[in-house]
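Sequence in, structure out.
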Amino acid sequence: MSRNSIGKSGLSFAVVLFLLMALTAYFLSPGYPAGENAGVCLPSPSMWHIKPMLSWGANLLLLLVCAAGASVLNRKYNFVPGTDLMLPAALLILVGSVPADLQRISTGTLLLAVNLLSMGLLLGCRQQANNTQRLFAIGSLISLGSTVQTAFIPFAIVYPIGAAMMKALGVKDTAAYIMGIISPYWALVGLGIVNPLDFRIEWQTGLFTLAPPAKTVFIIAIGVAVTALWGIILGFDNAIRLLKANVDVRRANRIFALLGIVALLGCIFKFPDMPAFLPTLFLGASVQLANAFSLRPTPVSPFVPLVLIVAYTALFILSSGFVI
């Protein structure tokens, strides 16, 4: 279980490759052809008045912090057995394959950060304990995110379900979560920052809502389909292998799987905002990939990570618009 599949050198390579992708995306890639929808009452991150270089740098730093945070979270709760560095390395390479999430501060990066923070709070919940503060904080984070992008809304259902899985959702906890959902909007209206009449939910759905459809969008969609395919296959295999794990590890993995499923459904049913869901989808897939290496009794061939690196580097090149 403590076997290293990539080690520190593998993580270092992933970081360097991620930085090269980020630099290329900012200086050379023309960008994603579809803009982000606004939030319920505030403009989306793409409309924030931040200098381009500063926005790119902040986004880059936040993604690196998210990868480190995923590793720290795993060391604390051990949902991927062992101390391998496959999880942060895979997350960086997968996220780096989509230029739209690298060029500026993006909803995808913010949603990934909020989901990691919320997972940290949720995994700290305990049965027969006072979890109201944790669930209030989770509800507030999701709700605050929804003010700037409606892609946050589907994830509001993940955390009460997760708390129920952990036997940590009582009446008070449910009330605290609902109050957390309400509180950001209550504050914005009370402070006079927004008017309730300005509330709206823009929810364009389906593959054909983009007119005309851009080639880069469909290339990214192919990447999503491939990621979902191997993520689901590994997820079923890992679920069987995790039957021998303790109950906390199984619950954590189920919640991460639920996050990935919701992100995948977001990519399908909120297609124009697909980049907003991708980093969270990649988080779920990275957990499955890391478990696939960690749970097997014999070492996995290093050819597998190499294939993934080549495949997602190719996805980055194609979706950057260099060759189409």
